[in-house]
Design brief:
Layout (H helix, E strand, L loop, with lengths): L1 H10 L6 H10 L5 E4 L8 H11 L3 E5 L15 H12 L5 E2 L5 E7 L2 E8 L7 E2 L2 E6 L2 E5 L2 H11 L8 E2 L9 H14 L10 H7 L3 E3 L6 E4 H7 L2 H7 L5 E5 L9 E5 L3 H15 L4 E4 L2 E4 H15 L9 E5 L3 E7 L6 E2 L12 H10 L7 H13 L6 E4 L2 E7 L6 H21 L5 H8 L3 H13 L3 E4 L6 E4 L2
Parallel strand pairs: 1-2, 12-16
Antiparallel strand pairs: 2-5, 3-6, 4-5, 6-7, 7-8, 9-11, 10-11, 12-13, 14-15, 16-17, 17-20, 18-19, 19-20, 21-22
Helix pairs in contact: 10-11, 11-13, 14-16, 15-16
């Protein structure tokens, strides 16, 4: 998916040849591609997709192509009117607000006319008839809650929420012992570190956690400072939904075997997370040169630092790390650079919270951007032979680390059968349920759910009726 998205980003602005359009049709609908019939008239749902594309990553809408990728075409008689409606309504702020430009082109495929619409990603937030839409997978999602719309504006904003200034915050609002520990850590790594001769306030100011907004004249400590070293009441006042949940679910899958719900600052949370993970996972050592190192520590330091430094803290989505029988899974809301799986070959590093990320770097918790992913790919196969980290970046960033080999065939089969039964029960209760909803209810990865659904279909236990977006599941006898 990620490769295809990068491919699209390269070809979309200049795509005019029929061969490229055919490749998109073969690829099928997705994040950046949508098919619409529109044989005799323009479907009004086209504008929902335009709005969703503007608010997400842009993309191509092909009018005259069915959901199943059949090229039906647009009638010659209706072409001029459909193009006119597109041009007029895109300049009508009562339809698309704010108005914007799209590119349209009529193309001939297999003797049939289709209309290709290129929608660029917009730096603004757009609505269609007063309703906001976003793109998820191959669906246009209507945003109905204040939080959904707020998240959309956050994603589009040019600045960083960690830089929000709180003028009345003072040094009394910080845990001084934590700043002292952080200072000592930095000096221990570098005896000549600039922090050596600074007091606590100077350390925060030099770390860009005290800012002066030239536009408004406002100045003071930032959200980043509160999150990094704030006392719990202060953190709650600047970020009321802030919390970090770490669970162990090896035996009791419905609830948990062990749990630590944290509302402390990031400095304390970093060490509490590592301690909890160390409590429930095995340690393994190996020699790197002449030095004996802990693989567990190397791997989970990367996971925890990434989990804390790249979270979008303005979003109330719960940040969670869960330890299962053989994997550790972290989930946190982020503002994605790209959508899909991440590997060392396609990573596009960008600091989500530059001030926090820079502070972590001074403490040695993170290195250069992108190095964490390379380290995980280096050390995970040493921790569990043949295993690699599974990273998926969407609005929610999910990282899965394996710490034990998969069980024997009987254990694997029992677990697989259990998952299959649960999936069938959920489908029976709600035939229109999506793979994403199943994954959320069962606390499993999308990859696991897709594989389970694929196996059920191959064994003729279920079938899909209708389109991918609006269809439903049928359980066969």
């Amino acid at each position: 998916m990620l490769f295809f998205y990068v491919f699209l980003q390269k070809i979309l602005p200049t795509m005019t040849d029929t061969e490229t359009i055919r490749k998109l049709i073969v690829q099928g609908e997705g994040l950046c591609v949508e098919f619409k019939q529109s044989r005799d008239s323009l479907s009004r749902s086209v504008f929902e997709t335009i709005c969703a594309f503007l608010n997400r990553k842009g993309g191509y809408i092909l009018l005259g192509v069915k959901d199943n990728a059949t090229i039906e075409g647009v009638t010659e008689k209706s072409l001029p009117l459909q193009l006119k409606i597109l041009a007029c309504d895109m300049n009508n702020t009562q339809i698309i607000a704010p108005s914007t430009r799209i590119d349209t082109e009529v193309m001939d495929l297999d003797g049939r006319k289709i209309i290709c619409i290129y929608v660029p990603e917009s730096a603004q937030v757009h609505s269609y008839k007063g309703v906001y839409y976003d793109r998820q997978g191959e669906a246009d999602i209507k945003l109905t809650t204040y939080m959904q719309i707020s998240n959309l504006y956050i994603r589009k904003q040019a600045g960083y929420t960690e830089n929000k200034i709180f003028p009345f915050m003072s040094m009394d609002d910080f845990v001084m012992e934590d700043i002292e520990k952080a200072k000592n850590e930095a000096i221990l790594r570098n005896p000549n570190h600039p922090w050596k001769d600074m007091d606590y306030e100077e350390i925060l100011r030099s770390s860009k956690m005290y800012l002066h907004d030239e536009k408004t004249g406002e100045k003071g400590f930032t959200m980043a400072a509160a999150l990094m070293f704030g006392k719990e009441p202060v953190i709650y006042s600047v970020c009321p939904h802030y919390k970090i949940d770490v669970l162990c679910r090896k035996e009791n899958m419905d609830r948990y075997d062990d749990r630590d719900l944290m509302t402390c600052n990031l400095y304390e949370a970093y060490y509490r997370l590592l301690t909890f993970i160390a409590k429930h996972t095995p340690d393994r050592f190996y020699l790197e040169g002449y030095f004996r190192l802990s693989i567990r520590e190397l791997i989970f330091r990367e996971m925890v630092a990434n989990f804390l430094a790249h979270r979008e803290y303005s979003n109330p989505y719960p940040a969670r790390i869960t330890i299962y029988k053989d994997t550790v899974v972290s989930e946190n809301w982020t503002i994605p650079n790209v959508m899909g799986a991440i590997t060392p070959d396609n990573v596009m590093p960008r600091a989500k919270n530059p001030a926090i990320d820079n502070f972590f770097r001074q403490l040695g918790w993170v290195e250069d951007l992108g190095s964490g992913i390379r380290n995980l790919y280096k050390y995970c196969p040493m921790y569990v032979p043949g295993s690699f980290p599974d990273m998926e970046e969407n609005d929610v960033f999910q990282l899965t680390i394996r710490y034990e080999k998969e069980g024997d065939m009987s254990d694997t089969l029992d677990e697989s059968l259990s998952n299959t039964k649960k999936v069938l029960m959920l489908i029976k209760e709600n035939p229109k349920i999506t793979a994403k909803q199943i994954a959320e209810i069962m606390s499993l990865s999308m990859r696991t759910i897709r594989n389970t659904l694929s196996e059920l279909r191959q064994n003729s236990l279920i079938e899909r009726e209708g389109s991918k977006k609006n269809g439903s599941w049928i359980i066969k006898e």
